[in-house]
Specification:
Layout (H helix, E strand, L loop, with lengths): L1 H4 L4 E5 L2 H13 L4 E5 L12 E6 L8 H14 E13 L9 E4 L2 E3 L11 E4 L1 H8 L3 E10 L2 E12 L3
Parallel strand pairs: 1-2, 3-4, 4-7
Antiparallel strand pairs: 4-9, 5-6, 6-7, 8-9
Length: 163
């Protein structure tokens, strides 16, 4: 919503209708226009090369390696050459992995009552990121702990689509 507030054409996608409805209400209350689409990151409802900037904060790691790769293929598809992709992904350095149940390589779920953790979460390393993003050029890349969950680490990064 902040990008819309400073004047950018803004679109948002998610599979959670409730979250999209909250965003829609907040945007309308602020007098902002945000195009909202209910969709999976692996099936973005946008034309090829239609964005200069894509932000995926704490979202693409929900799934296994193939789901993450599919989502990143879609990001590349909708991003223009020279466009920037900024995102977070879970880091394999996270101690939280040891408390989950591994359901496929580097993919974990938890049965701790927290509904956010009862579906797969993929944890990657730097080699995964490089493989996933291929010819993107790194603008920044940092593996850091989550402020309120020190057992979790996230990769924070921005990369530019080069070809």
């Amino acid at each position: 919503m902040e990008l819309a507030r400073i004047g950018y054409d803004t679109s948002a996608t998610d599979l959670a209708r409730a979250g999209l409805d909250r965003l829609d209400l907040a945007a309308r209350a602020a007098g902002l226009t945000v195009t909202i689409e209910e969709a999976a990151a692996s099936e973005l409802p946008f034309d090829d090369a239609s964005f200069n900037y894509v932000l995926a904060y704490n979202v693409i790691h929900h799934g296994d390696r193939d789901a993450v790769r599919s989502s990143l293929v879609e990001v590349r598809r909708v991003l223009r050459i020279g466009g920037v992709f900024q995102a977070t992904l879970l880091s394999r350095r996270s101690a939280a992995r040891s408390t989950g149940i591994e359901v496929s390589p580097n993919t974990y779920i938890w049965r701790d009552g927290d509904t956010d953790h009862q579906h797969p979460h993929y944890f990657c390393d730097g080699r995964d990121l490089s493989a996933f993003l291929g010819d993107f050029e790194w603008l920044f890349l940092e593996d850091r702990p989550v402020r309120d969950r020190p057992d979790y680490r996230h990769w924070h990064f921005a990369a530019e689509r080069r070809t």
